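Researcher: Let's walk through a ligand-bound prediction step by step. First, I give you the protein sequence. Second, the SMILES string for zinc ion. Third, you return the three-dimensional complex as structure tokens. Ready?
Model: Ready.
Researcher: Here are steps one and two:
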Amino acid sequence: MAFSPALTGLIDALRVLPGVGAKSAQRMAFHVLQREREGGRYLARSLEQALACIQHCRDCRMFTENELCDICANERRDPALVCVVESPADVMAIEQNTDFRGRYFVLLGRLSPIDGIGPAELGLDILRERLSRGLVTEVILATGATVEGEATAQYVADLARQHNAGVSRIAHGVPVGGELEYVDAGTLSQAFSGRRPI
Amino acid sequence: MAFSPALTGLIDALRVLPGVGAKSAQRMAFHVLQREREGGRYLARSLEQALACIQHCRDCRMFTENELCDICANERRDPALVCVVESPADVMAIEQNTDFRGRYFVLLGRLSPIDGIGPAELGLDILRERLSRGLVTEVILATGATVEGEATAQYVADLARQHNAGVSRIAHGVPVGGELEYVDAGTLSQAFSGRRPI
Ligand SMILES: [Zn+2]
Ligand SMILES: [Zn+2]
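Model: Step three, the predicted complex:
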């Protein structure tokens, strides 16, 4: 005896979510079917809508429904400063906790040759193109303080120097081995203002 | 600056899943948008399909696409034995690890007055109706060994006795305070065969 086909399918599908194993998927499916049917429909609709309309910003790779994200489309944001981060969550953390008024580049990952993630997968041809226009004076490296984050920062630093842009790395406060998005507000703010050229 | 409306909606919707907080919802949304777009569509379709066609079995409350679940529809399953469990996962665990060939009743919860979960919420009028037909000779109580699970077992035992059905409680092996679905196969099998009248 097994669960019915529709229930088996739902449990299986929930496992596409990161960190969700067989037991959690089962618990999630039961919960939605028993207590959150309206919420479940809302989730299905939100997923479909997000997948249909969310793309990457043409200039910075942030998720957006438009060709350009709100920041890249905002002419009051300084195009001479480009902060390079690993994830969209990092953009949000910096926006909420610092007074940075430049632009971003979102790698959507970090260099990891073992996992087949190289410069192309991080969209670095788009960043190269932006740098080649000659308007960027400073590239601020805000990748995580992990081994791969540091290797990625090094790679982007070399790329920036090839285009005669200054390079800085956010410095104080990000704990070694830590992920940027989990740093508290004060620490992140300090790390940002304490950046130094490398 | 905030995430785009479709992304904000998706992150918000993912929080209907149990155990998913703001950070996990964000991570799940990014993961689906970056790496699992096909999987995300599969999840949306599976959710919609499950919500559209999965109901509760008329006799035992198990999830099913049909009026009766596979077990209740199976005439070779003994209708004189009814095993009462808290969740559909418990049915699966018993089916996979014991040779029980009777039927079930799935409470979809346990008595919890503080949370507003009383006999009606556990569908006990359906069980009463089944007992009143006079065909049930033994009700096997397989609710969890928690305070609420024991109180629920006690309530169902009284109900069974009112209808002159024998009552037993699975006994050995289920650790006190433990949830049934996490018990290993051998322990559960032993607990089942070692049940005794109460
Ligand atoms: Zn952008
Ligand atoms: Zn049934």
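Researcher: And what stands out?
Model: Chain B touches chain A through 60 residues (CB under 8 Å). Strands of chain B lie at 55-56, 63-64, 78-85, 102-106, 138-141, 166-169, 196-197.
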